[in-house]
Structure formats: structure tokens, C-alpha cells
Amino acid sequence: MAYVFLIHLTCFTLFFPFHILAQNSGLVSVGSILAANESSIPWLSPSGDFAFGFRQLQDKDMFLLSIWYDKIPDKTVAWYVGSLVNPVPRGSTVELQAKRGLVLRDPQGQDIWSTATIYDEVNYGFMNNTGNFIIMASNNNTRLWESFRFAVDTILPLQRLTYGSVLYSRQSETNFSRGRFSLRFHQDGNLLLRVGSVPILDADAVYYSSQTSDAVNPLNSGQFVMFDSKASMYIQMRNNQTMQLTPFGIPPVSENYHRATLDFDGAFTHYFHPRTFTGKPNWTAFWAIPENICTAMDGTKGSGVCGYNSVCSLVGRKPVCECPQGYSLLDPNDKYGGCTPNFNQSCDELEQLPVEDKYDILAGSDIEWSNKSEYEVVNPSTEARCRKACLQDCLCAVAVLRNSSCWKKKLPLSNGRSVTNINSKVFLKYSKSDLPRQPHNLYPASARSKDRENLILVESVLLGTSLLLNVVIIGAICFGFQVIYQNNKLNLHPSKNGVEINLHCFSYKKLAEATNGFREELGRGSFGIVYKGEIKVGSIKDTVAVKKLDRVAQDAEKEFLAEVNTIGQTNHKHLVRLLGFCYEKQHRLLVYEYMGNGTLASLLFGKTIRSWKLRTQIATGIARGLVYLHDECSSQMIHCDIKPQNILLDDYYNARISDFGLAKLLQINQSRTLTNIRGTRGYVAPEWFRNTQITSKVDVYSFGVLLLEIICCRRHVEDVDTGEGGNAILTDWVWDCFQEGRLDALVENDFEVLEDTMKLEKYVKIGIWCIQEDPSLRPTMRKVSHMLEGIVEVMIPPCPSPFFSTI
User: Fold this and answer.
1) Residue 761 has pLDDT above 80, yes or no
2) Fewest Cβ atoms nearer than 10 Å: which of 128, 163, 542, 667?
3) Annotation marks residue 49 as catalytic
4) Which domains are seen in the chain, by residue range?
5) Which residues are annotated as a binding site?
6) Which residues are annotated as a binding site for ATP?
7) With 90 as the cut, is the pLDDT of residue 683 above it?
8) pLDDT value of position 117
9) Is 4 exposed, middle or buried (0-12, 13-18, 19+ CB in 10 A)?
């Protein structure tokens, strides 16, 4: 019997997979590899609480290299490599190597990321029970690298933030691209929350400060931020005193998991979650800074937590964003992306009809917007005078009466929030033609059901002087035509240290070093050459795109800084973000975020036909970005050069418009009239060749050409078989195919499109409407966006050119 037992023991010893035993101990041996697929087994900590590996995202073919809580239902991510290299496609791998540590590769075997700071040979990796992945050295058993030193948006107990440490928010709960907010432990000892991710001290961008800096006596300043083993967070001062951040009554660590995360909405929140599953899988917020994120951003730059024209209410420590009645989300999938009015208004319309016949005013209270939206004050004023002043001003969207002064505001409205105990009255303009059939409240019922207290606050807005005034539609103007925004005056005080926006003023030497002497060229455009670079922000290196401008005057300091200011104020998910600039002697450079998936041109005109669904999403995104430039940013921008090369794609293949706002920079160095041609041949609207006013309709024309390219995956001028041979201009060929009812010829061999003929026809008709030779026949970009999204019916377009109608 003993002999049989020894045989079984020997077989067990020979064939037992000891890598499983090693994994359960948290140890990862050199040469271990994980693959991005559903069957990949992650590297677990000894307790099994944490796992290191690839997390599958909503897009089933994309994975996130990350560390997550493995025992709870939602597998919450506590660390990931970063938005610049994540997510990665199916088939990617990560390997622990002896010389380089962790190495992440794409399915083709190309390096994407590595722990390149390794200075000694690796002995092993260790996924410990605190959520920290550690790489240990062979010689002296020291730590070569650990994930705790490279936090992204979350810190865990036993983790600390030292000088220069920074957390970045995500775009959303499920989008791991870098968001709008950052938390930084600054060199002066302050813990700061700010809008934007560039490490500069800009008072208008900061919405929380720990006030732990003392320039007179540095010993009274903060030294580091500690999240200790008991889940207590505090700032350790240089004089050994502490400033407690966490309130009393911390749920015990023995029974709960803890984490502190810079949420995508801008709040730094301490969460806890029961270690034993209780049927309630969600994390509970224990405390947050600031306490009320809705009101904390009052006075800061940008759109606020909820985006422009939205209103923020706090429910259970979390912001709830709602569009007022009469408004819709800019992006139906993004509640924090801002709102847009459902009706249009312009100053020109007032000439056709008395203002009282078109608009009325709704009186209310308990809502406030940033004073950055204010453009005129009527002082002294009464309720009747304030109401009339807004009603008769075509620029006015809302007026606020406080302390006998009437403050008029225009769109876009920023930092909207519900407030109480303020001695003010709000007058909201609305269009009579957009009156609802039944009275309703300012916010949809979905938000009111969440919190009765907030319902009481916002219902006070319904107070009016007649039944008609109980019908709530927030009046708004249509984000302006060009003449409206040309009247806006920037309150700029430019200096060589930077303009009054969330931008960093880089030295030329810094950018030369970041680009390795401007070595790696990404592309060339109308304004100069773009180079790839790396700029260190805290402990993380960010990849950036640096554009050297070569057609801007060297002696136009005020004009240059004013235009950079205007570009820097833009904030939209479909625009490439400007991070900083250089204004030094003869050098003019702009620093942008880097887009890893290149240009739309490379996607459309490659050898492989890309997904029809992806192409339609890209077209919709470009349209939304142009709507923002034309109607919703603080100073209207006409792009003047919309083409595939100026549409970049981020990590999720979202369309991002680049080079916007540069048309005015080009003007600084050139004496040009409105009829001088800007743009690229084939995308240029006909009015550029005539002595006529240039409006935003030139971008509509260019978008129409681009939309047809997106549909057909062919350039605007290309060899196309028209039945007669020879070259064909894409716009002409599309019109011929549309007239003759053979749209299938446009997408030959693209079977995905051929199965979606209704959308194909709709998109072709939209493209033809956009390329109408007469600008007045072209729709606005807002209407184009609504047509693409199915909100507005697309009628049959006329022939785009009178020339063709006569032959």
C-alpha cells in the first residue's frame, strides 16, 4: 500500500504544474507571459484580492493592461499602464524579462510599453496583497520598479504621493483615455485639484487646495500625502505635524477594501467595499474633496463638471448632470458632455418679427452659472427692467438679478449648478415656437426621482407670473453666427509667462529636447511641420505632438497670444487638445496631445476597407466637433481646411479635429482679403473664388467632400471607372450615381454598406446637400449633425451646381 502511495506521489511531483503554485504565492518568474484574450489567467496576489493582467473592455477586441480587485463582482481597476498605450488589441502580450522588466507588445510583436527604468537584472515579479506589483533585482533583492510609484487615477492603502506625484482622471467610467482633471502634490507642499493636466500654477484652473504651503516657513509646508494601512489619509508636514483629510469613523480595513480615486467628474473620492459579498456590489463613497464638486468649480475656467449649458446637482456626494427642458445632450452617450438647445435663434430673425412674438421669459431662482458667461450689466435694475433687457437683446440667453443689478449672460453657459439661499432671480429666455404641449419641470423626471431634496430646489424655478410661465423651456440663442462672436472682446493680459488659460508656456530648449532635436516628423501641413516628442509630467512621460509654425509673424505678440488663448479655451471630445505653446524670439510652436491612431486619411485610403459602423461614427464625431467650433465655443472658429489629414484618431478611434483656429494665426503674417483662398484643393468651397463673404458654410462644403470620401473610401480626385474611362472627381461621380439610382457602385465590394442601403442613401444625400455651390442652400453644421443622427429628416437634394443642371 505504501508502495502505491509513493508511485502516486512521484507522479504528482513530476506532473503538477508548479507555475500555478507560484502564481498563488504572488511570485512571477522571469519569462512569464500573459496574452490579451478571454482565456488568459492573470497573476494573482497570495490572498487573491488583486490580479495583474488584461481586462476585457466593452469593445470585446480591446483589453486593458491593469491591476484590479479580483474578488468583487465588478473587478474594479486600481492601476493601468496609462491612456497613451492603453487599451491594446486582442493578441497583445506582456512578458517579464530579465533585462527590461515588463514589456508590452502588440499582436505583431512590436514594443508598446516597458518598465524601461530597470537598471539591474530582474530576479522575479511579485503581485502583493496591497495591490502593488513589484519587480525585484537579482543581486541585492531591491525593488527595481513598482506600480505604486506610477499611480494613474487611484491610490490604495500604504501608497503615498510625493512631490510631483499626479493623478489623472479618465474620460468616463469606461473610457480610460485621459480626462479633464488632475490631482497633484505640488513642490510647494499643496495638494491641488485643477482643470487640465499641464503642471502649471494657474489660479483660475484650481478648484481645490489643501492650503499646506508656507513660503515664509517651509517647515510648515506639506511633505507627502499618505494613505495608511488603516485607510486614513493625511498630509505629512515637514515639522512632523499632520493635516487629516479623512474624517472619523473609517470603515475597518479588515472588513472592507478601500481606494481613493480621482473620478472622471473631478472629485477625489475615498470609497470602501465589503470584502464579503453582501449583494450590493457597488462601492460606497466615504468622503470626497471638494465636498460639493458642483459649486467648487465656480470661477474656474472651462465648462464645469457637466459641460456647457447643463446644470449640476449633488446627490449622495456625486454630481448629477441634467439638460434643462428644451435642451439635449451633445452626445447622447455622455451625460457630462454638455447640452445644446433644440431650437435655433439668430439676431437676423428679430428683423422679421417683433421680439415679443417670438420669445418670452421664464422667471425662477436657485440656479446659478459662472460669471464668465456675463457680458453686460444693467445697473440699477428692477425685475421688470431686467426681464425686458434680456428679452430685447438677441445675445441674451439668461439674465440674473441680484443686489439691484441685472447681469446678462450669453451662451455657452458654464459651471451651471443648483444653489440655495441666494438672493437672486433668474430670467430664462425661450422660443414661443418651441413651447411644450404640456407643462413640465426644468429637469427630466429621471433626475427628480433620485433625490427629493434636489427636486424641491429645482422646482422653485417654476415660479412664474402666469400659466404660460409655468411651461419651462430654457431660452437660448443658437450659439451665434460669426457676427455675434466677432463682437466678443477677450480680456487678455498676455505675457511671456503664459496666457490666462490652461496652457503651459514651454521654452524652445525644452521642446527641442522633448523632440530629440525635432527628429521624428509626424506630418506637414499648411502651417508647418509636426514632430513627435515626450514631455515629462511628474513621474510620467507624455507623448505629445509639437507643431512648428512657419507662417506667423514674429512681431505680433498680442495677436499671437490672443489666438492661442482662443484655441486653448476650447474643450470638446472631438477636438485635439492644445497643451501649451512656445513664444520665444523667432520661434512659434504649439504643443498638442498625441493621437496614437494617426490620421483619417491613413484609415480611409489604406489597402483594407474599414468598418462601415466605424466610418459612420467618425463622420458623426467630426460633425459634432464642427458644431462646437461654429456655435458653442466662446469665440466662433471657421476651420478653413477640413480634410482627412486634419482629422486625427485617438486610442478609441474617436475623430479629433486638428489645426482648428490656425486660420487667424496665418492672417497675422499675411495681408489677405476674405476672398484669398485658404484650404486644400478639392475641399475648397466655391465662394473662396468669388468676391463674397466667407462664413462657416465653407467648412460645411469641405465636410461634404470629406463625408463622400468616408462613404466611398476614395479620394476626392481619383481614378474611378465611370463607364467611360478616365479620371473622375468624386463629387461629380457621386451626383451621377445618385441621379441614376446606382449607389451600389459607390461602395462596390463593401458588403457591410450594401446591407445598410437606407443609411447609405441618407449619408449620400447629406453629402450632396453640403456641397451645394450656393452657400445659402447648404445646411448649418448643427443641422448636418442632426441629419446624421436621425433627428432631422433628409430631403432629396438639388443638383449641387447650376453648371450640371444645364448640360
Assistant:
1) yes
2) 163
3) no
4) 23-149 (2.90.10.10), 154-291 (2.90.10.10), 311-478 (no CATH), 504-593 (3.30.200.20), 600-805 (1.10.510.10)
5) 548
6) 548
7) no
8) 59
9) exposed
